[in-house]
Amino acid sequence: MTDDWLTRALEESRARGYLGPQSIEPQIAHAHGFALCWEAIRPSPPADFLDLGSGGGLPGLVLQERWRSHGVLLDSMEKRANFLSETLAWSDAPKGGEVITARAEDAARWPELEGQFDLVTARAFGSPAATSECAVRFLKLGGVLIVSEPPGERMEERWKTSGLALLGLVAQGRSRYGTAYEVLFKESPTDQRYPRLSGTPKKRPLF
Fold first, then answer.
1. SS3 readout for 84-104
2. What is the pTM (predicted TM-score) of this model?
3. In terms of CATH, what superfamily is 3-203?
């Protein structure tokens, strides 16, 4: 396996309109920022990670290439999930990747996915409240959620301590590796109420 696979996969993703038109290199660098956040906390790659709303493959494909762990790329859109499966089936693709087509609110309650992941990543998935609620049940107790952040906003304006506490999450603050990432730990079990029914976290955010 080489970076050639990753570059080809992301260029094909961009050609199909699943990624933005900007050059691939800064998009790869941004995806590596998720890994740097994790590696600043834990010395070894996560045994199991999930990329929430993986879409065109960022950061999921980059993390799969970097870590070669068991990675689940989750997306609700069938055509994008089919593309991700296609790229992971290429002969020089890293092993261990898995693609699931489902809504996060539904998949988080599947026995094979609930509480199974050391790390969940999210890039442009939704608001802090929706992202947190959709991600939290996938995490093991002690697991980490890393979310790509927009520039220029302070953490307390987006990540409300009281709302996160409902989910068993605690925000650790921003990390910066070129751009900003919010790092959150799952410190207590998630109440059975969460995530709520499909679509509800975005329509009626907790905070």
1. HHHHHCCCCCCCCEEEEECCH
2. 0.95
3. Vaccinia Virus protein VP39 (3.40.50.150)
